[in-house]
Amino acid sequence: MISRREIFETLDMIDQQHLDIRTVTMGISLLDCADPDPEACCRKIYDKITRLAKDLVRTGEDIEREFGIPIVNKRISVTPISLAAAASETEDYVLFARTLERAAAETGVNFIGGFSALVHKGFTAADRKLVASIPRALAETERVCSSVNVASTKSGINMDAVALMGRTIKETARLTADRGSLGCAKLVAFCNAVEDNPFMAGAFHGVGEPESVINVGISGPGVVHHALLECKGAPFDLVAETIKRTAFRVTRMGQLVAREASSRLGVPFGVVDLSLAPTPAIGDSVADILEEMGLERVGTHGTTAALALLNDAVKKGGLMAASHVGGLSGAFIPVSEDAGMIASAEAGTLCLDKLEAMTCVCSVGLDMIAVPGDTPAETLSAILADEAAIGMVNNKTTAVRLIPAEGKVVGDRVDFGGLLGSAPVIGVHPESSEVFVARGGRIPAPMQSLRN
Amino acid sequence: MRAIVTVVGKDRVGIIADVCTRLSGWNVNVLDINQTVMQGNFAMTMLVDLEKCELPFREVSEQLRLRGEEMKLSIRMQREDIFEAMHRV
Can you give the pTM of this predicted structure? Predict the structure, then answer.
């Protein structure tokens, strides 16, 4: 039998260290919903989602109850709407977002991802319509998440898309100004977007995916932090080993839940995403882990090295614990969702440039960062271009989820509520990138793309 | 299906008897018990088998939780798999 010590260790992780399954996400293909009549297409989309995901939330809750482990979010990702809606004869894609919203409400999920377009090499007519609809779609819905892939290692950076996304982010901020520009918290621009990401706001169901699939995102910054308390002053070899062991345990639990959800729902298991995702709760912070390694405050010199070690050890530990690993897999550093990051940003230690450096070695990118409301669209685009370049050259996923909070200036704070947390507004460089962004065209794919 | 029942709280007479009586009433078989009292705090783990149990898992688990509240104890039941997954390769 499992020993008493092991049992209470597990309970302690759940009760005291915020161990949970962050998300069980059902991916659903909408490719068979195409129809020249947009109303008919929407009907097919609604019917398919509500049919396949009707038991998702209840099954998640049953598993929570039986295993005694919280599953914080049950979510749905769908085929990028720019593909599903391409055949429909309409200029306005907001009705598809409204349909996703209704399907999400009916199934009881808190977010649905896939109001998306993949434009890393160029736009189709449908991609253009989708991106043009994003600001209104996000303003008129609550649960719909949107993402646009603007670059990849294989194809380079679509700078026209980068320029357009800067303006799209600004417009989304403007249309949701009464809610702290909340719309931008549901909008991600990617380089090397992955097809099986279970995490929002960037989740969509890729075209290489099956009809439907279950992907699970784990979490556990609090557990890793707690384990490191035993390693005070120890060399990094031991720090890495401790993180690996912890990640292994957490991932085994994720794999168990993923298999269970997949078998109960009769939907194939896709991947476990080995991500370390913080929440605004005290003790559930990635920043705490980095500071536990010996940094006075996250963002100071040494932060990038500490994050590199953490990110790598989480993957090494988790890899052996799951049969299929995918998604974003790594440590997330969303500023507004991490109490330690918020504190450091407010103290002025954590700045945008340091965050950009950190994204070279962590899971994704510049995530949930509030910037002044008067930040020009071109500056947002230039930040996105920098981030896409990091992803492109390093063969990794990078993303930008910036909130140019309307009417806010450096030092203000924007509250989004719930898991999205609150973000201190941090400064951007005042010097213009307008001429740079105005060039348009494509930044060619790098040498790294030629691997055949 | 096997599950782990954990009981934690202030020690008093009859905790084991109370929990075991309830479990036997639902036809839940106790396979192993491990119990200790440290500084007045009672901590027990039980391995139970629900194979012949007449109630659904969620019902047993909820009844135990409610009984725990009455006795000012934390009682919970979780499937054994989660502990196995976390602590055994």
Answer: 0.95
